[in-house]
Amino acid sequence: MLSSLLDRPRARLPRNDPALYERLADHWWRPRGRFAMLHWLAAARARLVPPAPRPGAVLVDLGCGGGLLAPHLSGSGYRHLGVDLSPSALRQARRHGVTAVRGNVLAVPLRDAVADVVVAGEILEHVPDLDRAVAEACRLLRPGGTLVLDTLADTALCRWLAVGVAERLPGLAPRGVHDPALLVDRAALAAACARGGVPLEIRGIRPRLPDLLAWAGGRRDTVRMVPVPSTAVLFQGRGRKTDHPRSPQRHREHPRRTA
Ligand SMILES: C[S@@+](CC[C@H](N)C(=O)[O-])C[C@H]1O[C@@H](n2cnc3c(N)ncnc32)[C@H](O)[C@@H]1O
């Protein structure tokens, strides 16, 4: 009786359940673990971070997870503060030099204008209140500071690719990590950023296919992300906080290159 209980596979969690990150805690830093794609995204995200504007400049990493951005910021001069709900993820982030802050991105326990850069990587599609998360990100930024984000678009194509396909392929996304209802409406995101004083520019990205095949065949440890013309699936955003919050506006595509 006891053995049959012990043998039972672990119950599947509801979608977007924070307990998933505790279950998969030992995957954060594995290049072929369930969070592999987050490593590729962290490298692409870091390329949007401007050089530190002054000694001791602060970068706040919202939903920092295991701190995968940290190696890409090494030597950049930023003090890297990571905010997350997951105790196991924060422990690992701390080991990689991140100053860990346990907190909710919907009510961040940090003062206004503390940050030269706020990063929101693969977090906005996990929160139930996009406006509030964006308002918090903008509140933390000092005027002239930079917001950097990447997330998933609220489109049928993205629901199919990010949830239907990626969650069935090892390394691209853990099963159940995304709730399709929380994917991000790009116009709503741009409007929320504008209300917070950050005109946002976005561009689509995807894994480079030859790298992805080589990674899948065990011939590469990482995959480069490359720009794509469409923002309908995975996209990055960047904007600089103005002194005067603007009225809502439509998002604009931007021509910067990744990779
Ligand atoms: C998909 S992971 C992304 C982690 C990291 N940004 C990266 O790209 O490697 C999402 C992270 O957000 C955290 N998270 C989810 N909801 C949160 C919330 N409301 N407040 C703070 N952290 C949250 C999770 O614990 C998890 O570490």
Automatic annotation (TrEMBL):
Residues 60-149 form the Methyltransferase type domain. Pfam families: Methyltransf_11 (PF08241). One of its GO terms (molecular function) is S-adenosylmethionine-dependent methyltransferase activity. Residues 235-259 are annotated as: Disordered. The keyword Zinc does not apply. Keywords: Methyltransferase, S-adenosyl-L-methionine, Transferase, Ubiquinone. One of its GO terms (biological process) is methylation. Residues 247-259 have a biased composition (Basic residues). It comes from the Bacteria. InterPro entries: Methyltransf_11, SAM-dependent_MTases_sf. This is 2-polyprenyl-6-hydroxyphenyl methylase / 3-demethylubiquinone-9 3-methyltransferase. The lineage of its organism: Bacteria, Bacillati, Actinomycetota, Actinomycetes, Kitasatosporales.
